[in-house]
């Protein structure tokens, strides 16, 4: 099916092709640029091109591909760096240099790389769809190869193979391959979804202790410029208690992306001691890449994340930042001359975001395993205005909200999570989880910490009127303790050994601060003066 270009408006191209479907991929121009059908009319189609359209001319050919935007799923995704269309950037650099040229490209996964396959079923066995046929070692991970459909296995080879070779055949002649293709805008199937329960440890005390995130949960952290969104998200990516990390740099600056990659390659995984990159997938569309590919990048990433979730792994997807994705959606909507909503965003912004967040969760896979996909997404509201449409749409869909406070960032308090404005809908389940598996004191210490911080906020308003010296000794002691909580517990340096705090260390640290407060309060009640209590510990008592 071939037609011609009849109109060009920036990245939007109109073609005289009939018989196309919505979201079908189209090859545009002599260079074969990649585009996607975004509008169908009686005798023409509007195509959003994912690449730079400079030099494209009216009259050049356009050809439908009869398939939507898809990702290739199989061994070789881990430890790779892709753009929003799943083009491997390292191999693109080898073929085109440091700047990506339009059209052509390379295969998503390396077809020449050799893998070792170990069959799990024998010849002649009947298998159901989703059954494990064998496994491939992908670094330290066991990568199962599953049956695409039910059938009887006629042959299955053991040993090394490349992705371009079949692993075997079914009795009806169908080939068994290690790779498959999946449309990125369609969620992958599962037997059933389960409610989030088990807590996801991130290593950030303010999150794990006060506003916990559950496996399969979703969280957002909006913040203005300089509040540490990227550093916090990268810290979670490095230390979160998950098997696989998928990081999406959506519209980020190139220098930040380069720094991230350097960190991932050089850092050792705290769980395995190997390179952190071995269990990481990076999808990047920097700010100078085409805007349409930026919009597609989060769908490419979540499809790959769901693929590893379906193997029974715990996967964490981080997107930085969803605001730049929404800006790309706004540009595309504007070029299509759609009716704008609030602040120019399309009216379907909230439903698109909700559909994306719904792909997170804990699932029972088709093979009977339990896997999870958790999402942590940063939001960059212009001017730090949390009432803007993107933040509000995310708030309606996410289960946890970590507000990054500009005033805390100005005081060099990082992570700059505001402990009064943030919340988590997973708090009760996470507290029960830690009470049961770690210590029954977890919930008690959590309550005491919140109480001390809340009372300090009330006293701070009084102190601004009468001065700190005008407060009673017990109130001054409380403010000292709250200061310790803020400086020694809630604050973490991302570039020292304190960047990661396991739950045991988190509980021990807050318990020591609360115990020191209780001992000092007892000495005040016994008649000692506050200056004496703060100067030295009581006899025989270790602070």
SSE layout and pairing:
Layout: E1 2-9, E2 12-15, E3 24-28, E4 33-40, E5 45-49, E6 61-68, E7 70-73, E8 81-82, H1 89-96, E9 114-119, E10 126-127, E11 132-138, E12 141-146, E13 151-156, E14 159-162, E15 168-170, E16 175-176, E17 180-183, E18 192-194, E19 199-200, H2 205-210, E20 213-214, E21 218-222, H3 229-239, E22 244-250, H4 254-266, E23 280-285, H5 291-309, E24 314-320, H6 322-335, H7 349-357, E25 361-364, E26 370-379, H8 389-397, E27 400-401, H9 406-410, E28 423-424, H10 427-437, H11 441-466, H12 473-490, H13 503-525, H14 530-535
Structure in words:
It is built from 14 helices and 28 strands. The protein is of the alpha+beta class. It folds into 4 domains: 2-68, Elongation Factor Tu (Ef-tu), domain 3 (Beta Barrel), CATH 2.40.30; 73-92 and 190-425, Rossmann fold (3-Layer(aba) Sandwich); 110-178, Beta Barrel (OB fold (Dihydrolipoamide Acetyltransferase, E2P)); 441-535, Orthogonal Bundle (Bovine Mitochondrial F1-ATPase, ATP Synthase Beta Chain, Chain D, domain3). The strands form 6 sheets. Strands 8, 18, 21, 22, 23, 24, 25, 26, 27 and 28 form a 10-stranded mixed beta sheet that branches. Strands 1-2-5-4-3-6 form a 6-stranded antiparallel beta barrel. Strands 12-11-9-14 form a 4-stranded antiparallel beta sheet, with no helix packed on it. Helix 7 runs parallel beside helix 8 and helix 11 packs across helix 12 (473-490).
């Amino acid at each position: 099916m071939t037609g011609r270009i009849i109109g060009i408006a920036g990245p939007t191209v109109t073609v005289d092709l009939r018989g196309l479907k919505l979201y079908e991929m189209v090859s545009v121009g002599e260079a074969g640029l990649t585009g996607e059908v975004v509008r169908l009319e009686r005798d023409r189609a509007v195509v959003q091109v994912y690449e730079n359209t400079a030099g494209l001319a009216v009259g050049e050919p356009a050809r439908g591909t009869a398939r939507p935007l898809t990702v290739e799923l199989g061994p070789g995704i881990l430890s790779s760096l892709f753009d929003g269309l799943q083009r491997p950037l390292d191999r693109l650099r080898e073929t085109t240099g440091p700047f990506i040229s339009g059209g052509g490209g390379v295969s998503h996964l390396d077809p020449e790389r050799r893998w070792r396959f170990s069959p799990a079923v024998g010849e002649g066995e009947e298998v159901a769809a989703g059954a494990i046929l064998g496994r491939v070692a992908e670094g330290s991970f066991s990568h199962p190869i599953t049956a695409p459909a039910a059938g009887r296995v006629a042959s299955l080879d053991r040993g090394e193979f490349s992705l371009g070779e079949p692993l075997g055949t079914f009795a009806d002649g169908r080939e068994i391959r290690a790779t498959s293709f999946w449309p990125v805008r369609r969620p992958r199937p599962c037997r059933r979804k389960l409610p989030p329960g088990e807590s996801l440890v991130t290593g950030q005390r303010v999150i794990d202790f006060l506003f916990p995130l559950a496996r399969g949960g979703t969280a957002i952290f909006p913040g203005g410029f300089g509040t540490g969104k990227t550093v916090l998200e990268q810290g979670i990516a490095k230390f979160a208690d998950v098997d696989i990390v998928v990081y999406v740099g959506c519209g980020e600056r190139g220098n930040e992306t380069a720094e991230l990659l350097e960190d991932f390659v050089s850092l050792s995984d705290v769980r395995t001691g190997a390179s952190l990159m071995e269990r990481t997938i990076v999808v990047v569309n920097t700010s100078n890449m085409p805007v349409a590919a930026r919009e597609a990048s989060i769908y490419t990433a979540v499809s790959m994340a769901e693929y590893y979730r379906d193997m029974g792994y715990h996967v964490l997807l981080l997107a930085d930042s969803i605001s730049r994705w929404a800006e790309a959606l706004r540009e595309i909507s504007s070029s299509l001359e759609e009716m704008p909503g609030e602040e120019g965003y399309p009216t379907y912004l909230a439903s698109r975001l909700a559909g994306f967040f719904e792909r997170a969760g804990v699932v029972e896979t088709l093979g009977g395993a339990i896997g999870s996909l958790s999402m942590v997404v940063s939001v960059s509201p212009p001017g730090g205005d949390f009432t803007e449409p993107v933040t509000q749409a995310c708030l309606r869909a996410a289960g946890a909200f970590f507000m990054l406070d500009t005033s805390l960032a100005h005081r060099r308090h990082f992570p700059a999570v505001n402990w009064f404005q943030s919340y988590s809908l997973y708090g009760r389940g996470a507290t029960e989880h830690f009470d049961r598996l770690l210590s029954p004191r977890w919930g008690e210490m959590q309550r005491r910490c919140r109480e001390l911080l809340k009372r300090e906020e009330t006293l701070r308003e009084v102190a601004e009127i009468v001065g700190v010296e005008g407060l009673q000794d017990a109130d001054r002691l409380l403010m000292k303790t709250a200061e310790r909580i803020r400086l020694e517990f809630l604050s973490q340096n991302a570039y020292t050994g304190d960047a990661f705090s396991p739950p045991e260390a988190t509980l021990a640290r807050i318990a020591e601060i609360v115990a020191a407060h209780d001992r000092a309060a007892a000495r005040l009640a016994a008649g000692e003066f506050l200056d004496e209590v703060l100067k030295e510990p009581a006899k025989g008592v270790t602070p």
